[in-house]
Amino acid sequence: MLNVQHVTKYYGNHLAVSDLSFSVKQGEIFGLLGVNGAGKTTTFRMITGLLDKSSGSITLNGKPIDYTVTDKIGFLTEERSLLLKLTVQEQVLYYGILKGMKEKDILDKLDGLLKRFHIEEYKNRKIKELSKGNQQKVQFITAIINEPMLLILDEPFSGLDPLNVQLFMDVIKELKEKGTSIIFSSHRMEHVEMFCEKLVVLVRGKSVLSGNLKEIKKEYRKKNIHIEAEDVNITKLKQVHGVLDVIKNENEIIVKIASEENVKDVFEFVKHCKGVTKFVVEDASLNEIFLEKVGVLYENEM
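RESULT FIELD:
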């Protein structure tokens, strides 16, 4: 288990992370979210030992993280951290040896991973000759070659098409099933919703939202109703009690309501419309919750 307790980080007089606490259990995927400059990268670097914290504690399975522990951590950074003049094999060997692995073990695992990611033909090609997507695959391989106890993924799907995003997702889920603790960061909230059980949202280094994702969505009272029907009077629908907004898409109407209590009011209106084929109530998306929570805080600071 990773434990981050009351961690604070100053750069001179600038407060980058303030009294941050969270834990990630074995075999759990945890979301660390925030806009650019929120403190995510600083937090990742403190966890991996690349930065000293100003105060607080960070432990992995009860032990402070130092060079005896970092061999058990994998880190896929948002920015490219590959040596472009090396071949794929040389790059992975370099990272594997840094993690204390034997060369034979690295090469054995490398062949399987290259095949899994459909880039075995690039084994002896230089990194600079690969596409951005294939470079991302190599970077991911370097992060997991040591079968890490803790894996940090910062924007792991950058530069990937949908097929390769799914491939990455499958591998991440397999690592979770094997017991790897995973911290996941992405600006794509739909990806976070697919993976993360718990999360923290940072704004200017402070935690403004945290907890179990299902509980967060439950406590956020606003709901969305998806409707397919003929001849819906949008103007009158917007006047129904509890309706906050109505969005008309090509194939459906999305009604945003203040709480679940307003569902019956919308239903009473819709049942008088012609050709109703869909009436589905859903929780607000994590993206909506994120935008409202973070947006309000930024507006209050202006």
